[in-house]
Amino acid sequence: MLPDPTPFTQGVFVLSCTWARTRAVLLKRSLGLLLSVCLLLGLSACGSGSQPPRSVLLSALGLQIRLTQSAVAQSLDLDVAGDPDVSRVRLEDQESIRLGEHRGVHLTGRFDWRLPGDRVRVDSPFELFLEQGERGESWRLAQPVGSSDGLTQEWVTYPLPLDPS
């Protein structure tokens, strides 16, 4: 008499079910990893085009100090001390925004600076609004000036030097 084939058939069935589940889990994990990598690459590609170079940040911070310094000196009838020395920019937050019809970026962080002739370097927080040129090659410092209609923010912009790199 021949042995009962049931135990062998059940073992093969269990083995094939286990392999099928393992393949399904591996496939799901591989797809999840692939989608995560694609999403990460997509997000980094979008963000890198809108981040201003370090030289633009230094120029914008220097210009913002000069504009503030000029306004204060004018109101007090004083002479402007000269161009500030800006260094150690630490970016804490960055978000893409619209400045009227143009693309822009809102940046916050900290930086070190000092006026000509001063020995003391000051660590200060900053908030910058930068408008990106239409081709993405140039930048302008943007400052809010209020709203004539009470509904939309108006901006005044100042050109920044082009990045030589």
Textual characterization of the structure:
- The chain is of the alpha+beta class and 165 residues long.
- It contains two helices and five strands; from the N terminus they run ααβββββ.
- A five-stranded antiparallel β-sheet has the order 1-2-3-4-5.
- The termini are far apart.
- About 12% of the residues have low confidence.
Q: Gist?
A:
This protein is of the alpha+beta class. It has two helices and five strands; from the N terminus they run H-H-E-E-E-E-E. The termini are far apart.
Q: Portion of residues in helices? A: 40-55%
Backbone shape: extended
The proportion of residues in beta strands is 25-35%
The secondary-structure element order is: HHEEEEE
Mean pLDDT: 77
Any low-confidence stretches, pLDDT <50, length ≥5? Answer: 31-49
> What Rg, in angstroms, do the CA atoms define?
29 Å
Secondary structure: number of strands:
5
Largest sheet, strands/sense/barrel: 5 strands, antiparallel
Tally of individual domains: 2
Query: Taking strands numbered 1, 2, ... along the chain, how are they ordered across the largest sheet?
Result: 1-2-3-4-5
How far the N terminus sits from the C terminus, by CA atoms, comes to 87 Å
Per DSSP, the total helix count is 2
- Secondary-structure-derived class: alpha+beta
